[in-house]
C-alpha cells in the first residue's frame, strides 16, 4: 500500500469500493472517524481512483498494482513453510492487525 502512496484507510476504502460496498460504512464500523473517511475519499478522488464512493478505472488499476506488489513481496516469506507454520504465523499477523485497529475484534 505504502509503495503506491496509500494509507491503510485509503486502501480499506478503495478495496471496499472495488467490491461494491459502501466504503464509508465499512470504514466507520472499523472505528475510523467520519472526518478521516472523508479525507480518504477526497484523497482517492484527487487521484481519480474514486468518483464519489465508486471505483474508477484508474482506481481498479491502482488496486491491481497494490495486489501485484503485495503478492510479489509476500511470496518469498512463505516459501519452505508447512501448513501448521503458516497458520501459526498468520494468527500473529491477524492479532497484530486487530490490535492496530485494522481488523475488528473477532475477525
Radius of gyration: 15 Å
Average pLDDT reading: 88
- The low-pLDDT segments are none
**End-to-end C-alpha gap:** 21 Å
Taken from the alpha-carbon principal axes, the silhouette is globular
What order do the helices and strands follow? Answer: HHHEEHH
What's the arrangement of strands in the largest beta sheet?
1-2
Most strands sheet: 2 strands, antiparallel
Beta-strand content bin: under 5%
Number of domains: 1
Decide which structural class fits the backbone: mainly alpha
Helix content: 55-70%
Number of helices: 5
Number of strands: 2
Give a short overview:
The protein is mainly α and 107 residues long. It has helices at residues 8-18, 23-29, 34-46, 57-78, 83-99; strands at residues 50-51, 54-55. It has five helices and two strands, in the order αααββαα.
Give your account of this protein's structure.
The protein has one domain. 65% of the residues lie in helices and 4% in strands. It is built from five helices and two strands. Strands 1-2 form a two-stranded antiparallel sheet. A hairpin with a 2-residue loop joins strand 1 and strand 2.
